[in-house]
Amino acid sequence: MSIKSIAAKLFAKYIHYQNQKWIKQPIQTQQKVFEQLIQQAKHTAFGKDHDFDNISSIRDFQERVPVRDYEGHKAYVERIKNGESDVLWKGKPLYFAKTSGTTSGAKYIPISKESMPFHISAARNAILSYIYHTQKADFVNGKMIFLQGNPEMDEINGIKLGRLSGIVAHYVPKYLQKNRMPSWKTNIIDDWETKVEAIVQETISENMTVISGIPSWVQMYFERLIAQGKQPVGKLFPNFQLFIYGGVNYEPYRNKMEQLIGRKVDSIELFPASEGFFAYQNDPKDSGMLLLLNSGIFYEFIKADEFFTENPKRYTIAEVALGINYVLILSTNAGLWAYNIGDTVMFTSLFPHKIVVTGRIKHFISAFGEHVIGKEVEQALQNTLVNHPASVTEFTVAPQINPTQGLPYHEWLIEFDQLPENFTAFSAALDEAMRKQNVYYDDLISGKVLQPLQITLIAKNGFNAYMKSEGKLGGQNKIPRLSNDRKIAEFLNSHTT
What we know:
The chain is α/β, with parallel strands linked by helices. 37% of the residues lie in helices and 23% in strands. A hairpin with a 2-residue loop joins strand 9 (266-273) and strand 10. Helix 1 packs across helix 6 (116-134), helix 14 crosses helix 15 and helix 15 (423-437) packs across helix 16.
């Protein structure tokens, strides 16, 4: 065992015990974070507009600060972009993380000098937690790759602007610099397909031990590796030990990824976003992700089925319950206040507080009142694959309200790498699995309002073609699991087999 791996184990043990201090006091920890946020933002424009001077409780805050999405913060962000200080947070942000929005166009999410360290320490602590629980640390001696955005940045009135993954690339610790791949020259390639090819050429002969990225894009990298090296990824990289991912549920991809690798590898899930780093899987044997309650973020939660009602109740960490789908609401040390990030989560444990991401509040199907969410379609597909093996590359679901004949239905658009042996049985099993996941969907099928789901087979790289058409191929972009309209479905229907 190398000195580096011994040191990693010792550091992992230290961080584990440090974390117990806040894990064991969740309510007190969040109260302290809340008070610090209010105190530090009293003299900002937002703080003055919302009477922060007279906020002495969470209830005061909820009465004064309504839940808003990016549109509700946009006027303040524009003032910061125009050069004003002390607007949402004290001083000016260190960075704007630029993200693509569906209704707002480009979003400019502020990252402050107070919030930036948490983006870095959370990613580090996720790996250290894996080391602590598994006692595996040899991978620190090999090469690590993080499929990420271009680290080059623009500037707006002295504030640097870039993609979050590109910003984070500037903060890789010195002790990891020699292990980190790809090279700067490759990382700044904008075209994703060109970049993947360059990454393949750089890494194919290296001792890769850790690979990180969104599963769909890592899958593309693996396929190119195999085409070049003529062997499974696990043979090309015999010491490949750990896959780190975030952004989507890994389970629909797991079988395909393990086929490409040729064996099983450990995996851990992260929940980062431009707005903050919220959670990570601290124990590889537990799918729940540890909610980071001490990271400069005050969390509120609104029940998803109440979100669109007037004045829905906002729950704190002291009030949440297991098994309920909540919309995640944030107030952060970068100056986002009661911010609706759009993600929905469910608690799997309350001591410690662990969550799974269930989808997006805007990504659902409720054309007939069924309100099907991302977690349900992913779980239905996962359950179906157990008894009807197949290899799914990508999928999405949309309602078909006006079919040419028969009742309306849910259309599943699936790109298979390997079809199920009995396609008819697979379709029927998938519909049955969906009925078990969502009682309203079951009622609609039983009541002859909907006919059973129909599967449309998408040609190879059809989903990549859609993402390319949207200018979202690669990086941190991902296909919505479901939509309440036909936009994605209509494109993909021109890419069928």
